[in-house]
Structures are given as C-alpha cells and as structure tokens.
Specification:
ADP-ribosyl cyclase/cyclic ADP-ribose hydrolase; Toll_tir_struct_dom_sf; 175 residues; EC 3.2.2.6; single chain; alpha/beta; 6 strands; Rossmann fold; TIR_dom
Length: 175
C-alpha cells in the first residue's frame, strides 16, 4: 500500500518543528570569524583583503578597526572573542611584538573552538617554538622586569598550541 493517502499531502506537510542543530549552536555568537592580526604587518594588505572577501560571502568577521573603538578595554575584546565561532590568527613577523596579539591568541586558545591559522611570511615552527622573528620578541619580554613572567609563559604556551594546528602558510608577495 501507499503511504500517502492523498496526492499533494507531502506539499502541505508543515516544516520540521525543531531547527537543524547548526542553527541552535549559532545562538549567542555575534561573529562568524574573529581575525587576530598585527596591524602594521598585514592590515593594509592581506587582512583587509581577507575581511572584504569574508564580507562579500556574507560572513560576519570581527576586525578591530571596524568593531573596537579607540580606548576600549581588553575585556571588551575578550567579550568579542567569546562571541566568535571561528578564529583566524594571522601570524606575521611582528605578531609577538604586540601584547594585544599575545593576549588575543591566549584567549582564543582558551575558547577551544576552531582555529584556522595563517602563517604570513613566518614559519609555523617559529610560532610553535618562538624562534626566528618570535625569538627576539620573547627575549625582550623576558628581559623586561615589568613583564609578568607567568603571563609570558601563557603566551608562549598559546603560541605553541596554535602553531601546532595545520593552517595556511603564505609568503609576503608585497615585498
């Protein structure tokens, strides 16, 4: 026998009452993607292009120039990280020279969500082991008496964890 007793019954049936799981998981997120980057290194090139592309595709991305007013505190930045689904740290030669970036990557790793690293003109092993351009930044941090050594250790650990994730390695083609 036939399951449908009348023709057209399938068309009249109501949509499923519960939304698909992804919709439920998205509640509470303000941003699809959080871009963590060192402004002087990549903002005017790669990061701006990536942000424009994401916007074009309908992906809501947090980028500090758009979403963070000058003078807003790190707590607000951490709140934006908490409200993001996916993280894209753009590791560049000067990334570890910025305490903001180091605080961001530490919070990002703590969130235990999807991280898609971009290694922009740096080797992933330099990020993992704080060698190459990352070594000099950490040497300065260790030599600075005002720097909290426990915090530096957390930053190093966060870079190690993020540097172990497969991502994209790009050469700086802008010279």
């Amino acid at each position: 026998g036939s399951i449908n007793s009348e023709e057209g019954e399938a068309e009249a049936s109501p949509p499923p009452s519960s939304p698909p799981p992804l919709v439920r998981e998205d509640i509470g997120f303000k941003y699809d993607v959080f871009l963590s980057f060192r402004g002087p290194d990549t903002r005017k090139g790669f990061t701006d292009h990536l942000h424009a592309f994401l916007k074009l595709k309908g992906i809501t991305a947090f980028i500090d120039s758009d979403n963070l007013e000058k003078g807003q505190k790190v707590e607000h930045l951490f709140d934006c990280i908490q409200k993001s689904k996916i993280f894209v740290p753009i590791f560049s030669k000067g990334y570890a020279d910025s305490k903001w970036c180091l605080q961001e990557i530490t919070k990002i790793v703590e969130c235990k969500r999807l991280i898609i690293p971009v290694f922009f003109d740096v080797n992933p092993t330099d990020v993992r082991h704080q060698t190459g351009p990352f070594a000099s930044a950490f040497t300065r941090l260790h030599e600075n008496r005002k720097t909290d050594k426990e915090e530096v250790s957390q930053w190093s650990d966060a870079l190690r964890k993020a540097g172990e994730i497969s991502g994209y390695t790009l050469a700086d083609t802008e010279g």
